[in-house]
Design brief:
Helix content is 68%, strand content 0%. The chain is mainly α.
Length: 68
């Protein structure tokens, strides 16, 4: 039997995708501003840093555990 949790699951996926895109966008903005001010492309390393920080705040590791 299948549980009927699909609507909330798709909403959860959309919410998590929106947060991922927000984190990537934040990293791009920080990278662009930093690169514009200093001329160094190293500022674009802010993209993976923003995604990693977002992972710490918005990820739910308990969802990866098998049901008890």
């Amino acid at each position: 039997m299948r549980q009927t949790e699909e609507p909330s699951c798709s909403t959860d996926v959309r919410r998590r995708l929106a947060w991922l895109l927000a984190c990537i966008g934040t990293g791009v903005i920080v990278g662009w501003v930093g690169s514009s001010l200093t001329g160094s492309d190293n500022w674009y390393l802010a993209i993976p840093v923003a995604v990693a920080v977002g992972w710490l705040f918005f990820a739910d590791p308990s969802r990866c555990e098998p049901p008890r």
